[in-house]
Specification:
By secondary structure, this protein is mostly helical. The chain has helices at about 1-15, 25-35, 40-50, 50-70, 75-90, 90-100, 115-125, 150, 155, 175-185, 215-230; strands at about 105, 130.
Length: about 240
């Protein structure tokens, strides 16, 4: 698992004399993971490495893989990368699994990376039975090597595919959808769709800027107190927030 993988990277750094304070095992593990998501083995990654961080990761990568092999272990990225390699290099094995998985369905297709894309492509090419669900407007995992262009190129990869746009939104009001569209429409490469709802226009969106979290909390508290004085009830309020734990 991820904790084991980082422990092996940490041990490798120690053996190679790489200082953790300069290049943390977590960041090195992330770079190696990124290489595997691009289907780059140690030697290919070493040829492409640029800058001190990538060059250091390129030194760690082969030793890390050797240790995994000696332990009879794979990390999460290996599960996909090595399966894709197995299929690429052994047509008879690929054919066996193409027959087993004649229909492929992929959810959140905008969050796939190159290794996942290659694996899906290999499995689906025998029957051309592939259905994907995705929205390039919601692609948020580029830091995990997700590439939204894979979704944008779907029709080019599978020219016989039928595309269905699901443009009705059941959750939000039209003002929220219009505000979202005004932001996403600035993207140069994207699908073109216009979301609509039958929920009505709704309230206008307010954007407030605070100097720190204490000022933000104080504003929320004062807003609630004001509503309570006007006959409101605490059960009428909910505070939604996103935190990084």
């Amino acid at each position: 698992d991820e904790a084991d993988a980082q422990a092996v990277v940490k041990l490798t750094c120690k053996e190679l004399g790489i200082e953790e304070k300069v290049f943390s095992p977590q960041s090195m593990r992330g770079l190696i993971s990124g290489a595997k998501n691009e289907l780059l083995g140690p030697s290919a990654y070493a040829r492409l490495a640029q800058g001190r961080a990538q060059e250091t990761a390129a030194k760690i990568y082969p030793v890390y893989q050797k240790k995994l092999l000696e332990s009879g272990a794979m990390d999460f990225d290996d599960i996909i990368m090595l399966t894709a390699r197995l299929f690429d290099e052994n047509p008879e094995i690929l054919q066996r699994y193409q027959q087993q998985f004649a229909y492929i369905l992929v959810d959140e297709y905008q969050d796939t990376n190159h290794a996942q894309y290659r694996l899906i492509q290999l499995l689906a090419q025998a029957h051309n039975n592939i259905c994907v669900v995705g929205d390039d407007w919601q692609s948020i995992y580029s830091f995990r090597s997700a590439d939204y262009r894979i979704l944008l190129n779907f029709q080019k990869d599978w020219p016989q595919a039928k595309i269905f746009f699901l443009e009705q939104n059941y959750r939000s009001t039209q003002n929220i959808l219009d505000a979202s569209y005004s932001v996403i429409s600035k993207n140069i490469f994207r699908t073109d769709k216009k979301l609509f709802t039958t929920n009505g226009k709704g309230e206008l969106i307010k954007v407030l800027k605070f100097k720190d979290e204490r000022e933000e909390a104080l504003w929320i508290k004062e807003r609630i107190v004001k509503e309570l004085k006007n006959g409101g009830n605490l059960n009428d309020f909910a505070i939604l927030f996103r935190t990084n734990v």
